[in-house]
Amino acid sequence: MNRKYEHPWDITPHEAIKLQKKLSSHIIISGRPSKIEMIAGIDIAFDKNSNIGFCGILIFTFPELKIIEERFCWGHISFPYIPGLLSFREAPLILELFKSLHHIPDCIILDGQGIAHPRRFGVASHVGLLLGLPSIGCAKSRLFGSFDEPALEEGSRTYIVDKDNFPIGIVLRARKNTRPVFVSPGHLVGIDDAADIVYSCADGYRIPAPTRFAHIRVGEYKRNRLKEWKR
């Protein structure tokens, strides 16, 4: 953890917005990890009938994409669901689970936004800054910005831009004739480099392997925990 940027989590949505604006000035959007040997996929699942969240972190070798570690946890979520403030629901579980890892990844990919966010501070930026690690957001839909649809060919991409036409992410079609994903750097990664890393993890699928498997495995973990609690 980068203690320089630690902050309370028990805050109001108004306070959360102010904090995002403050912390976003510390985000670095350039370069890429000098060497990636391990990459992490992170995903969160929620129980629609309670305030419980489930977190999964999977560590993969890179570029082989072999799973070498899986960690899961659950916890009570107190922050409300508000688009643009999802990191205040998800990040506490992610950061707590990260402490249990035996392997520290060289880069992390999260199912969510990086700087393609109204305040340039989505969950990938928030988590990346607090961990001090290169991070990338790979979302299934757009939250902020405008874009032209990329060509239907695999690997096609276009930029997501803000109202000033400044690039804040990339729309990437990782598989031919499928819907694209929305990639934006979180921290310590450039825009084009973030898309290159995500595409190198796609292995023929729309969603990159790290977050695709994290989504599958945390869903299994959630279902198993809920079954146990009902016994």
Q: Please, could you describe this protein's structure?
A:
By secondary structure, the chain is an alpha+beta fold. The chain has one domain: 2-Layer Sandwich (archaeoglobus fulgidus dsm 4304 fold), CATH 3.30.2170. The chain contains 5 helices and 8 strands. It starts with 12 loop residues before the first helix and ends with a helix.
CATH class category label: Alpha Beta
Helix content: 25-40%
Name the overall outline.
Answer: globular
Could you spell the SSE succession in H and E letters?
Answer: HEEEHEHEEEEHH
Strand order of the largest sheet: 3-2-1-4-5-8-7-6
Short description:
With 231 residues, the chain is an alpha+beta fold. The longest helix is centred in the last third of the chain and has 22 residues.
Which properties best describe this structure?
globular, 28% helix, 231 residues, 8 strands, archaeoglobus fulgidus dsm 4304 fold, alpha+beta
Q: What's the helix and strand layout?
A:
Layout: H1 13-23, E1 38-46, E2 52-61, E3 67-76, H2 87-98, E4 107-110, H3 123-131, E5 135-139, E6 157-161, E7 167-172, E8 181-187, H4 191-200, H5 209-230
Parallel strand pairs: 1-4, 4-5
Antiparallel strand pairs: 1-2, 2-3, 5-8, 6-7, 7-8
